[in-house]
Design brief:
With 346 residues, this protein is of the alpha/beta class. It has helices spanning 4-10, 12-50, 67-83, 98-105, 120-127, 135-138, 163-172, 187-199, 211-220, 230-239, 285-299, 302-310, 320-341; strands at residues 56-60, 87-91, 113-118, 139-149, 151-154, 178-181, 204-207, 225-228, 243-247, 272-280, 314-315. It contains 13 helices and eleven strands.
Length: 346
């Protein structure tokens, strides 16, 4: 039997061959590891270069016919034309927009499932105790689309034709005016709650599953008032089916120049909703950049810009990072409002 000394003395060729073999193996491993490290980057670039390779679903978390749906269809049409694939609207309503949002969170992060976002998820993050995802963490922001104020609407049967008259009437008849909304925690609901606090009045909140159902009951007189954006309400206002008492922007809107601002009667009052596009977390940045570029370009199209102005909306052209910061800021803001006003999901 050889000792260690004997191995070194009598079989140096074995040591050399073993060392050479180990060196070659190590080099092969390093090449393999380098290839593995590069592979995700190559795959992501290839994915972005062929994107979209199939129809893209755009999830709307609220019932059809509301502002989220209307704006999603406006963006979808432009993206379909530019990118050569169909962008298909898929309606997934649910409390606080959580069902639609979660379906996007759970989707493959390949850019073929997108979410039309409004301010609701930034409200729901605090309003609902049990949500199976974290919106700020789990949705990748892509681009802003539009910024929209709300309009205070009343049924023509309401014995108040101006905002001061409505405030006076509700103070004299507390609890007799029902305020419809698209659901608990939606922008129309929060605009109403903020108005109640600042005007010192009592309104009975009646939540619906979406804007369409709420406006239907408002048109029939089942409820007396609501806060909704011009996107959903301007047609009814111009036809005389609903009366617009005020807008929640600091200034009057070009689309409704005769309608005063709430701030003309309740100093400092201001409320805006906003809309944008998001995707599942870990969606390749190349796809996000592509979509941001095309969506932002569409907002500069004179036809789309004119259409948004007709609906009382203004463009919200933001980078993905800027849109992400808006979502974070709004989440923090509504957390404070919900706690101060003690608003709860029923």
């Amino acid at each position: 039997m050889f000792t260690s000394e004997h191995r070194t003395t009598y079989a140096p060729h074995l040591v050399i061959r073993q060392t050479t073999s180990m060196t070659l193996a190590r080099r092969s491993f390093l090449r393999f590891a380098a290839g593995v490290a590069v592979f995700p980057t190559v795959s992501r670039l290839a994915m972005a270069q062929t994107y979209p390779s199939s129809p893209v679903r755009v999830i709307v978390s609220f019932a059809a016919g509301g502002p989220t749906d209307i704006l999603a269809r406006l963006v979808r049409q432009h993206l379909s034309q530019l990118l050569g694939q169909q962008f298909v609207i898929e309606i997934k309503p649910g409390p606080g927009g959580n069902i639609g949002a979660e379906s996007v969170v759970r989707a493959e992060p390949d850019g073929h499932t997108l979410l039309m976002i409004d301010a609701t998820p930034t409200i729901s993050a605090t309003l609902y105790d049990k949500i199976n995802f974290n919106f700020v963490r789990d949705i990748a922001p892509i681009a802003g689309v539009a910024r929209v104020p709300q309009v205070i609407l009343v049924h023509p049967s309401v014995p108040a034709k101006t905002l001061p008259e409505l405030i006076t009437y509700t103070k004299a008849n507390p609890g007799k005016i029902n305020m419809a909304s698209a659901g608990i925690g939606t922008p129309p609901h929060m605009a109403g709650e903020l108005f109640k606090l600042e005007a010192g009045i009592n309104l009975v909140h009646v939540p619906y599953r979406g804007t369409g159902a709420a406006i239907a009951d408002l048109l029939s007189g089942q409820v007396q008032m609501s806060f909704f954006g011009p996107v959903a309400s301007v047609g009814y206002i111009k036809s005389g089916k609903l009366l617009a008492l005020a807008v929640t922007s600091p200034k009057r809107l070009d689309v409704l120049p005769e309608v005063p601002s709430v701030s003309e009667f309740v100093p400092g009052f201001e409320f805006f909703s906003w809309f944008g596009i998001g995707a599942p977390r870990n969606t390749p940045k190349e796809i996000i950049e592509l979509l941001n570029r095309e969506i932002t370009a569409s907002l500069g199209d004179p036809k789309i810009k004119a259409r948004l102005l007709e609906l009382g909306a203004t463009t919200l052209a933001l980078s993905a990072a800027e849109f992400g910061q808006l979502i974070k800021d709004e989440t923090e803001k509504w957390a404070r409002v919900i706690r101060v006003a003690n608003i709860r999901a029923e």
